[in-house]
Amino acid sequence: MENPYQSPEAEPRGRRPTIYWISLFGAGVGIPLFIELAIVHWANVLDRFLWLANQAVGFPAFAWPLSLPLVFWFMYAARAFEKRGQEINIRFLWLIPVLVLPTVALTWAALHKSVEPGVYDRQDLQVLTALMLVQFSSTGVAILANRGQRAIVASIALLASLFAVGCDFVGAMNITGDWL
Hints:
The chain is mainly α. The chain has one domain (18-176). The protein is 72% helix and 0% strand. The chain contains seven helices and no strands. The radius of gyration is 20 Å and the shape is elongated.
């Protein structure tokens, strides 16, 4: 129901425009990625980080029986989201940790490379395990928090989690020095 006392151009109070949430989301993802790149550049392991990222990017393609249906689900959910005319809101910000944590794992792995196979600090590997658990927990919270938008959020979160498994796998091989 429209408010007859409010001009049609005026935005309802308390609602932020979609561009506000997109820019906040971009800053939430972009700033940690910039900090990670600055850390690996400062530690002089940027080439190692980029090599690990190159190895991890191929993991969703390797796991195509999982990633292909998720991509189709995302395309369907995005079309349905657009048809309903829904706007992006603050609950989409729950996706930030889901998208940032895989690169945190790669940064950690690049900084803690094994010098020789089998010689590594177990705590470095436990950090990757903890990051993976936080990743999966964040995925669940992001899906549950986005009521009414779960299809698009779930497809994005599960694709990011599939990428996170690849990042953690490549990172663990880099830390332990045992490559497949």
